[in-house]
Design brief:
16% strand, Rossmann fold, globular, 296 residues, 10 helices, binds NADP nicotinamide-adenine-dinucleotide phosphate
């Protein structure tokens, strides 16, 4: 199976290219990657420099020439707070380009798998979100991703994920790990709940979904829910820090306040993916591997 990965030099892209090549990325699990046993992939990873997904002609030429079975789109405008002042830039990559990819895939016989976010939800449900729940994004980034979903066709596969942590990404997890190592303390909110997702585990799930390309929406994240405080506390524990490493604060205490509002509770219900394929490991186990990967 020939897979074209766009945004391949991003956080998830790097892990996905490794996984498709049969390599276990730093922070990955050889055991979990056995879920791909028996599948063979030919991977073509393209960075922003190689293929700008907002350039319709360039995208069409690439698909016509390369003829991938599946395009996994990981290109995105991911600066959540900056998007509040640059909504058009976010819309261009997260919405218009997804429409371009969807149309080009339909025209040249490829299937599209594109990645979206828990930020399409407003966080007011009071329970984890199902694929069938109605989006109501509260930020420019969330709106742009929701608009991208709406530009997909029924045969395209949309994977919503959240709070992604990859050893090679610029993540909150790395900031916490650095503070834990240098003896500093951290303050994190305990009134925002979500689903932590290890980039390497997500990559395995994306590869498996690409094989079937079932179409529709799929929620994929590590098992279990957490607050940002829980994440900081656990990473501190993994670095052997005492109980006072992380202090719980509320969102109202954040100073300055982030430009983009975050959902209060946007953990994803992943039972559809688990029932059809497999569960992702618990988020604590994922972060244990993440920390081991950082140490290496
Ligand atoms: N990170 C999270 O916590 C999180 C949570 C939920 C969902 N997601 C979604 O997961 C997916 C992967 O995210 P990630 O964490 O891997 O993000 P990332 O590290 O920011 O990677 C995104 C990649 O897209 C590339 N890109 C930007 N504009 C492009 C364009 N016009 N054409 C082609 N490539 C372009 C970027 O390249 P340059 O840097 O060179 O511009 C970058 O390599 C995205 O769809 C994101 O929205 C992420």
């Amino acid at each position: 199976m020939k897979i074209l990965v766009t945004g391949a030099s991003g956080q998830v892209g790097r892990d996905l290219v490794d996984v498709l090549d049969g390599v276990v990325p730093a922070g990955g699990s050889a055991e979990f990657q056995k879920n791909l046993s028996g599948f063979e992939f030919q991977v073509l990873g393209v960075s922003h420099h190689d293929l700008d997904v907002t350039d319709e002609e360039h995208v069409e030429n690439a698909l016509q020439r390369l003829k991938p079975d599946v395009v996994i789109n990981l290109s995105a405008y991911t600066a959540v707070d900056l998007a509040e002042s640059q909504p058009e830039a976010a819309e261009l990559v997260n919405a218009a380009a997804v429409g371009i990819l969807s149309k080009a895939c339909a025209a040249y016989g490829s299937r599209l798998l594109t990645v979206s976010t828990d930020y399409v939800f407003d966080g007011n449900k009071g329970d984890s979100y199902l694929e069938t729940d109605q989006p109501n994004p509260q930020s420019a980034y969330g709106r742009s991703k929701w608009h991208g979903e709406q530009l997909c066709s029924a045969s395209d596969t949309i994977v919503r994920t959240s709070w992604v942590m990859g050893v090679r990404g610029k993540t909150v997890g790395k900031v916490i790990a650095d503070r834990a190592k240098t003896g500093e303390r951290v303050r994190f909110v305990d009134d925002q709940m979500g689903s932590v997702t290890c980039a390497s585990d997500l990559a395995v799930a994306l590869a498996r979904l690409a094989v079937d390309s079932p179409g529709g929406i799929w929620h994929v994240a590590n098992s279990g829910s957490a607050t940002w405080f829980d994440v900081a506390d656990w990473i501190g524990e993994l670095y052997g820090r005492e109980d006072d490493f992380a202090t719980a604060i509320s969102t109202a205490d954040l100073s300055p306040q982030p430009a983009a509002p975050r959902p209060t509770r946007s953990d994803l219900n992943t039972s559809k993916f688990a029932a059809s394929y497999f569960s992702l490991p618990d988020w604590r186990e994922g972060l244990l591997r993440f920390v081991e990967g950082l140490r290496r």
